[in-house]
């Protein structure tokens, strides 16, 4: 009897072992498939990085060897580039020949953006309004921005000083804002609005807004600007420079002579937001963004660059500085 009981109890154990082995064997395809997908994602990310980085270097070469028109980057002899593309300085993307046209390149001259360091309330207020910020939030942010950078503890009507920020665990800078992300610390700036306005703001030394390179959204931040007027400006500057507030007013059919202090119709600022992008999957884009400063100096040709790279003759150089670099996946 004992022997029969022992033999009968072995069957469930064998069945359990077989079930476990079956489950383990069935999980192998899922594990392998997951690993393959991970490797595929890693490869695609590396491939996108290689393409965009190479395209970014190509763009830097165009900046180094080119010269600046009022609204576009030109070759050193003021003619078209050998690749046949026209590179406008307004952030518009252009497909380039590298990698069978899979990558795009854009140049944004920074005085075509809203410079927070100029404290131009009309532009800051208008940009926030365009992206949905209410009047109260706009008033609070601008006064708080002014309180953030000044050295005293006097609070403006809608502003905030040390007493307000200490409850949040930090203090105002009492100096110039250093990075765009810093304004998230300032009273009145909400995360949702910041993410919308971030591509259209910068911190620099421009004397005002340059309508020749301003983005559509930045043009719309001007007082009384209409969508039709902004599109007229975009179309006009493709073939004609805008050189004064009178010509700008004539193009958009709105009188801006009262707001002349908002504008700068001089030479380009020589600080550029250079972007290269490519597809990373079906609905995802991989972008590299680089803020570049071109130092004053004559443009050079590729032949000059190759001939003088060892001797480093400064009179023939127009070098560039990289001020900021980041990757974006969206």
Describe the structure.
- With 330 residues, this protein is of the alpha+beta class.
- The chain has two domains: 42-119 and 191-330, no CATH class; 134-189, no CATH class.
- Helices cover 39% and strands 15% of the residues.
- It contains nine helices and ten strands.
- The strands form three sheets. A five-stranded antiparallel sheet has the order 4-5-8-9-10.
- β4 and β5 (104-109) form a beta hairpin.
- α2 (121-130) packs across α3 (135-149).
- The radius of gyration is 28 Å and the shape is globular.
- The model is unreliable at 308-317 (pLDDT under 50).
Order of helices and strands: HEEEEEEHHHHEHHHEEHE
Biggest sheet overview: 5 strands, antiparallel
Measured on Cα atoms, how large is the radius of gyration? 28 Å
The overall strand count is 10
What is the count of helical runs? 9
Into how many domains do the coordinates divide?
2
Distance between the termini: 72 Å
The gross shape turns out to be globular
Strand content: 5-15%
* Uncertain parts: 308-317
Mean pLDDT, all residues: 85
Quickly give the structural class. alpha+beta
Share in helix: 25-40%
**Strands of the biggest beta sheet: in what spatial order?**
4-5-8-9-10
């Amino acid at each position: 009897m004992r022997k029969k009981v022992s033999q009968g109890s072995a069957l469930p154990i064998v069945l359990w072992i077989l079930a476990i082995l079956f489950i383990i064997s069935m999980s192998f395809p899922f594990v392998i498939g997951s690993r393959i997908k991970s490797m595929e994602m890693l490869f695609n990310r590396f491939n996108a990085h290689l393409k965009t980085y190479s395209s970014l270097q190509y763009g830097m070469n165009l900046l180094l060897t080119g010269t600046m028109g009022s609204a576009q980057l030109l070759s050193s002899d003021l003619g078209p580039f050998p690749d046949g593309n026209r590179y406008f300085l307004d952030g518009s993307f252009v497909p380039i020949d590298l990698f069978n046209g899979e990558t795009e390149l854009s140049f944004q001259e920074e005085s075509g953006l809203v410079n927070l360091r100029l404290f131009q309330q009309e532009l800051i207020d208008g940009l926030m309004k365009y992206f949905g910020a209410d009047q109260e939030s706009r008033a609070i942010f601008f006064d708080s921005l002014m309180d953030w950078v000044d050295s005293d503890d006097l609070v403006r009507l809608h502003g905030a000083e040390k007493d307000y920020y200490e409850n949040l665990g930090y203090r105002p800078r009492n100096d110039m804002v250093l990075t765009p992300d810093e304004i998230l610390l300032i009273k009145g700036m909400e995360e949702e609005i910041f993410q919308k306005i971030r591509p259209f703001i910068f911190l620099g030394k421009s004397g005002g807004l340059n309508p020749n390179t301003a983005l559509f959204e930045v043009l719309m931040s001007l007082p009384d600007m209409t969508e039709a007027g902004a599109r007229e400006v975009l179309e006009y500057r493709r073939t004609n420079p805008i050189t004064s507030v009178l010509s700008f007013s004539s193009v958009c059919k709105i009188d801006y002579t009262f707001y002349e202090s908002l504008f700068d119709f001089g030479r380009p600022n020589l600080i550029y937001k250079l972007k290269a992008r490519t597809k990373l999957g079906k609905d995802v884009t991989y972008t590299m963004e680089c803020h570049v400063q071109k130092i004053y100096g004559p443009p050079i040709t590729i032949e000059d660059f190759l001939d003088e790279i060892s001797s480093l003759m400064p009179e023939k150089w127009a070098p560039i500085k990289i001020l900021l670099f980041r990757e974006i996946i969206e």
